[in-house]
Write a structure and sequence with these properties.
Length: about 550
């Protein structure tokens, strides 16, 4: 939202936005001329040049820029016909501002627009383009798969679908085997997870006398789980729900650990234990017999990149086991390398979920695909021989038209191969630490920067009005930082906008794993410059 508004308000500065990194890994001379050659921060040395030989070269994208008249005509059509999500479009309709030039091409970590300007994408689209833009091998796989088999009903199977389910099972190693149910998105994957959890308990009534009573889903404040009815009800972000009417019943919220805002007398581990006790108290107060599942992200992403203490997830697993509650881990953002491990929960003491959801990095956003994977304990309760439900109702009665699409599954398989063969998960870990250290080194003295935190290439910068009180920076000021970063530096910086009133104050970075150290430096410079300009303007007023 901040990005679109900033681009609408002012002309693009084309010279500032020409930040091109060759897909074969050379750092352009233009970066050196601007003094943006790779630096070191806190002793972290730059990585050697990477090689991404199948990405399109910038010169191959020549001829895509429209002349002024054609661009204006397309802009008019965009204004009159297209409804953007999370965007206030009134200024476009009244001609007080123009929409941003459409994106037409991409390579590496860079987006190319029809007016010839370029943007360094600091949030990988929407947390998803993990392997970077312009991967020809993914396009080739999609073409071959589409020619061979463009679609099949979800009740059928195809080799790409079977192979992908097998690969995910190998990566997860859930107890008693893994089965995958495919969807088209993370929202649908979470929706399926909640239905599976509830049906599991009904089916388990012979072994659990209160199984038929279990229907409640406990989730956490600040978390985002999707935009479908159940997933939105589980989401702990009030501003996403205002105006949509009553939410489905059976969803309960608990606080997450928030080390930055913990009580001053508590260690992070003590704070985590306090939060776990609150979770257990909620189970007791709600009646443990009514609770079906607890859903959480290993690291809260859109709610502000909130990284838990190491002790938190193992304790959550203990409490779930104590009360017979299924643990659902939402790995839609953190899965497939984002945190520096293949899955985010793999950082935390060998904890295994009962159900895990994924999307985004599963296909790096090249095609829509999500998945809900379950342990053998859960899956076998859908056998008619094991279920307390009537035989005709024992199977999973959930279906998605495009779930397990053969083209999407083929692309996802190739995407995972790229992650593994190019060592991109380790690269995300190392580059994430480089970026976070660079941000700390450059920004820590700024009066508005409260904390820089990260898990791999999932980075948050919390902005505060006062470092002592940790009062959040007001949204009108916080929203200017991504706007200026895009307008003046050609860098897309995210923010946790439209989440919790008064707490939309965290800048978010989740770039493609192929981002270079020189590009990371540009990201840091863009945020530093935006902070400097916003702070100076605020002081002047």
């Amino acid at each position: 939202h901040d990005l679109r508004r900033s681009i609408s308000d002012v002309p693009t500065r084309r010279a500032m936005q020409r930040v091109v990194v060759s897909s074969r890994g050379s750092v352009p001379a233009v970066l050196a001329r601007r003094g943006l050659a790779t630096r070191t921060h806190d002793g972290v040395m730059p990585t050697p040049k990477a090689s991404f030989s199948t990405s399109p070269q910038p010169e191959e994208q020549e001829g895509l820029v429209l002349d002024r008249a054609a661009l204006e005509a397309l802009t008019t059509t965009q204004t009159e016909r297209l409804w953007h999500p999370m965007t206030q479009q009134r200024p476009w309709a009244t001609r007080d501002a123009a929409p941003p030039a459409p994106v037409v091409a991409s390579h590496g970590s860079t987006l190319v627009r029809l007016d010839g300007s370029e943007l360094l994408d600091g949030i990988a689209g929407l947390w998803c383009v993990n392997v970077g833009y312009g991967r020809r091998e993914l396009a080739d796989v999609a073409y071959d798969a589409m020619v061979r088999l463009p679609y099949h009903a979800p009740t059928m199977a195809s080799p790409p679908q079977i192979d992908l389910a097998d690969k995910i099972g190998d990566l997860l190693k859930l107890n008693e085997g893994t089965h995958c149910f495919f969807t088209s998105s993370g929202s649908e994957a979470n929706e399926a997870a909640f239905k599976i959890a509830r049906q599991y308990h009904l089916a388990n009534a012979r072994d659990d006398p209160v199984g038929a009573l279990r229907y409640k889903i406990i989730s956490r404040h600040r978390a985002y789980h999707g935009n479908t009815a159940g997933a939105m009800a589980a989401t702990g972000q009030a501003e996403r729900k205002i105006g949509f009417g009553a939410q489905p019943s059976g969803y309960v919220k608990v606080p997450p650990p928030y080390p930055y805002r913990r009580h001053a007398k508590l260690t992070p581990e003590e704070h985590a234990e306090d939060v776990v006790r609150s979770f257990e108290d909620t189970i007791i107060f709600e009646g443990y017999e009514t609770v079906a599942a607890f859903v959480m992200e290993p690291v809260i992403s859109g709610g502000g990149v909130i990284v838990p203490p190491e002790t938190y997830l193992p304790r959550v697993r203990e409490i779930c086991d104590k009360y017979g509650i299924l643990l659902i881990l939402d790995e839609v953002v953190s899965g497939f390398g984002r945190t520096g491990r293949m899955f985010g929960h793999q950082h935390y003491g060998g904890v295994l979920p009962d159900i895990i959801t994924m999307a985004k990095g599963l296909s790096s956003g090249y095609v829509p695909l999500g998945a809900c994977a379950v342990s053998g304990k859960v899956f076998t309760k859908f056998y008619d021989s094991d279920s307390a439900l009537p035989s005709r109702l024992a199977h999973l009665r959930q279906i998605n038209t495009y779930g397990g699409h053969p083209v999407a599954c083929a692309v996802a398989l190739k995407n995972i191969e790229i992650l593994e063969t190019e060592g991109l998960v380790d690269r995300a870990r190392d580059t994430g630490d480089y970026l976070a250290n660079a941000l700390r080194s450059t920004l820590s003295a700024h009066p508005w920067v409260g904390e820089v935190r990260n898990k791999g290439l999932l980075v948050g910068v919390e902005l505060v009005a006062d470092k002592e009180t940790k009062a959040p920076l007001p949204e009108p000021l916080a929203s200017q930082i991504p706007a200026i970063a895009a307008r003046d530096f050609g860098v897309i910086v995210g923010r946790n906008g439209t989440t919790v009133p008064g707490l939309n104050n965290v800048l978010i970075l989740a770039p493609p794993f192929v981002i270079t150290h020189a590009e990371c430096d540009l990201v840091v410079d863009s945020i530093a410059g935006a902070l400097r300009k916003t702070h100076a303007s605020h002081d002047a007023n």
